[in-house]
Structures
1.
Amino acid sequence: MCVSYLTQKTIKSKVAFNGVALHSGLDVNICIKPAEPNFGIVFKRVDLNENNLVYPNFMNVTNTSLNTTIENEYGVKVSTIEHLMGALFGLGIDNAIIEIDNEEVPILDGSAKEFIEKIILSGIQISDAPIKIIKINKKIEFSEGERHISIQPSTLSLDIDFELNYENTIIGNQKNKVKVYEDDLTEVYNSRTFCLYEDIEYIKKKGLAKGGSLDNAIVVKDKEILNPEGLRNVKEFVNHKILDCIGDLYTSGYRIVANVVCSRGGHYMTNQLLRKVFKNKENFSILEIKEKNLPHNLINRNLLRSIA
């Protein structure tokens, strides 16, 4: 999942998924199809005949409560996009059209595992068009109460340093730091969404998690994990939060070169950070890669051409 060959990619052939939506409980079909260079990632609601394109841009995010929801100017929505977006980011997919026949992306097993596996099986088509990246120029922070997230310049990597803190002793204070373009992120992409058993009734009263089950979420009750198979990795809770963060960062439109530090964050915090970053053009640069490989040092201005 490294991004060493720096030209735009799409999938070689269409990939279909079917499953229950976590919050609506409805059966949903999606089909990811190849797209031309510079097309970007676009969702298409095929259950609607018009105004059915929805762009996964941070400015189009209209809900961050328990998922990331995007919406176009006509009120057409696509929700729970974060795991699929994380998979596309990790595989270096720059261009794809995602056809979906309902409002919510299926949850599958609660991670990005199935998205990753099927897309790899379909193959990845490499173009000659250079990729674009976002380079962060200065440190930007966003805080709310005890929650905090920051982004600051990096050399040529995307580092995510994430900490979560729960009173529950099973989850507790869990931390992990990953280099997104260099590390083996298998455990991150295989990590499932989770919740506390005592929160389920409240979530369902809000009309959410109608499709939730032990097949697609980790449920923690006191000092016990209710899923018979237990955890997939020892840091599965924080690793899932990192997966969410990667998917939400991709609503910036491009891969990012930066150092992200987050404590007790989530969809809302990441979205607010992106809004703050892109509010001022001095905070970032959008760069086009002019060579096939980055040097193993600071990003060289001779390899990059600023386009913003």
2.
Amino acid sequence: MFTRIARRYDLMNTLMTAGRHHAWRRRVAAEVARAPLGPVLDLATGTADLALAVRAADGSRLVVGADFSLGMLAAGRAKLAARGERHVPLLAADALRLPFADKTFACVTSAFLLRNLADLAQGLAEMRRVTVLGGRVVSLEIVRPGIVGWDALFGLYFDRLVPWAGALVAGDRAAYTYLPRSVATFFSPRELTLVMQAVGLRDVRVRRLALGTIALHVAVAAER
């Protein structure tokens, strides 16, 4: 599915968020800057927007981008080449079985990955495993705002208009029907915090962005 929409992925992100997704990624990059020195792993890197944001915030860091969609990786490599960025290697990887040794990265980031994992706890445990003790795990996710009235309006937009736009712009209504459904069945920010704590992530902080529709989680890797 993600390979099918890779060509129009950036355009759809910009249309759906009125361009605000770049600001959210910069918030993640600011959290990465507070992590210990060392390389960063960006999971579900897609077209590499978050990896580029991290590099823009701290050009001294190596950022490794990983994704299991070959189409997304191809789009990401083309973008990096066009910008002359040589410090963001991209590779194919399964987030549930990361091909890295324990405690390899100072920080692991993801944008809009977690609700797509077949096993959320396993994915988070892998992120903790490859992060150095005291390093950070930072995620962005779309969530329901949970506010009476606004929740209904958001649902109208997300459940009705987004699939229509996906069909018109990306030529894939199914992918952009899956998107709101995946959000509707995903954990609340509080529930996600509890799962993170259960796999050995500590000092979890949550910040809501975009009128409560985006959750930024920041956690510290610890021994279980």
